[in-house]
Amino acid sequence: MTTAFDPIDLAGTRLANRIAMAPMTRSRAHNEGRTPTALVAEYYAQRASAGLIITEGTQPSAVGQGYPNTPGLHSPEQTTAWREVTDAVHERGGRIFAQLMHSGRIGHPDLLDGDLHPVGPSAVRPEGQLYTLDGLKDFVTPRELTAEEVRATVAEFASAARNAVAAGFDGVEIHGANGYLVHQFLATGSNHRTDEWGGSVENRIRFAVEVVKAVAAEIGPERTGLRISPANPYNDITETESEETYTALVEAIDPLGIAYLHVTEAVPDIRELTLTLRKRFSGTFVLNPATEGPTGAESLALIEDGTADMVAYGQLFIANPDLPARLRNDGPYNTPDRASFFGGDHRGYTDYPAL
After folding, report:
1. Structure-derived torsion over alpha carbons of residues 270, 271, 276, 278, reported in degrees to the nearest 10
2. How many CA atoms, within 13 angstroms, populate the side-chain half-sphere of residue 120?
3. Separation between Cα atoms, residue 62 and residue 112, nearest integer Å
């Protein structure tokens, strides 16, 4: 029987176990260049016992930033700074992918340089607010991307992926979940386009497929992953035809041979669709399962019964940097301190000397 503590071959990259560290925003790029700091290197190195670390969302372009102090991978300075992080993880035997996250309409002009303004597939303003350095502010109406800008955005993902490899990352994960730009193209509530990127299921998946193809062509499919969250309403997303949309998306990317598909079960009663996608995808299947609280040791059974090849853990990795060892020993677990989740030097645990 396969267990979470068995190694796995991730499209040619050997992982020590099947426990992934899920991407979590940390907002620690406290500098003008939005580069990762020494604290970021220490943070990820302390969690190098994960089979795979997936970093916080990292913007592939300046306009892709959606939160304060998030790092990028679109400048030479950012690429150089990330090398300190990847070296630190590799020195401890870990593997690390950079998550490329364009926030799209989930942003605010106050977070962006110059006269940049949040963009999206359509000029549809999301309901709600987001954090800026001046406090909570209402979302704004995004500027609809032109066809030329859509193609340029695809190219920006590929360029950021190239920078990631230059920075020493083992690969990249394309963020197609949680209401950010790729997800906005997939969802009918945020995508009102009438051109080749809107309307039908085939058209709405086109942007996601083009990004995956461009990244895979740039750095190799074995270094490319995709994260999705079917039917997730986060960030004011409204989806219709979720089953048809995500089945079509997975069938379109599967022939590319990418390293993994990362599914986040963000809503209850989604397991049937998860299992459908599992059958449609021939690569490594990473699952962040639906749970009532933080994902716990009970979810390791999903590997044993074949539901997933790997399980991704989020909150518990904040409080327990040595989480794989604690899962193997069934604890003890520190309780995550939500005050520590975003930035600063706050500690999210009580007995582990980590940041």
Report:
1. 120
2. 31
3. 7
What the block records as the tokens of 185 is 């193209």
What mean pLDDT do residues 34-63 have? 97
Please tell me which residue, 200 or 336, carries the higher pLDDT value: 200
Tell me: pLDDT of 279 over 60: yes
pTM: 0.95
User: What's the whole-number mean pLDDT along residues 27-35?
Assistant: 91
Position 269 scores a pLDDT of 93
Indicate whether 349 pLDDT > 50.
Answer: no
Confidence band of 343 (pLDDT split at 50, 70, 90)? very low
The pair phi, psi for residue 142, each rounded to 5°, is -75, 160
Q: How far apart are CA 295 and CA 336, in angstroms?
A: 12
3-state secondary structure the chain: CCCCCCCEEECCEEECCCEEECCCCCCCCCCCCCCCCHHHHHHHHCCCCCCEEEEEEEECCHHHCCCCCCCECCCHHHHHHHHHHHHHHHHCCCCEEEEECCCCCCCCHHHCCCCCCCEECCCCCCCCEEEECCEEEECCCCEECCHHHHHHHHHHHHHHHHHHHHCCCCEEEEEECCCCHHHHHHCCCCCCCCCCCCCCHHHHCHHHHHHHHHHHHHHCHHHEEEEECCCCCCCCCCCCCHHHHHHHHHHHHHHHCCCEEEEECCCCCCHHHHHHHHHHCCCEEEEECCCCCCCCHHHHHHHHCCCCCEEEECHHHHHCCCHHHHHHCCCCCCCCCHHHCCCCCCCCCCCCCCC
Active site residues: 180
The mean pLDDT of 34-59, rounded to a whole number, is 97
